[in-house]
Specification:
With 171 residues, the protein is an alpha+beta fold. The protein has five helices and eight strands; from the N terminus they run βαααβββαβαβββ. The longest helix has 15 residues. The two termini are 22 Å apart.
Length: 171
Amino acid sequence: MSDYEVRPATLRDAKAIAEVHAAAARAAYEGILPEDELRALAPATREAKWRDAIEFSEPQVQVAVLDGEVVGFVGFDRSRDAKTPSTTGEIWAIYVLPEHWDKGVGVALWDAARDGLEEEGCTVVTVWVPLRNDRAMRFHELAGFKREMKTAKTTAIGSVKIEEIRLKRNV
């Protein structure tokens, strides 16, 4: 893991973050979304979003870098869920290029997010995960997150509706 550096994202990273987001989402949602929806997960549709996030720190964004290349990122901040205490943080997004899966990048990004949330005074952190995304569910559960069974909701990704559940753990 020592070859990966995790650091705050800069505006110059927005394009690379969008590329990681698109590539990882396509791989993660294969078998969950139809092929045409997977093709629509393009970097061009995400770059402006990540540029704004970095510029305005909403969410805060950290990147994992290997040999000068962004290979993963995490976006985190206060929870966006209604009626949550101000001490509740949220992992808004965490994605790693598929060729770097199972190499500790996700753990390093989670550690950076946890440290950032702790600095913000958060005591609890949540994340929304699609129920059918077994890899993401396993990752978060191994990181100590527990399912909140009464939080299941339906979210649209393009024209497809997927079921998500919120997971929670102490910071």
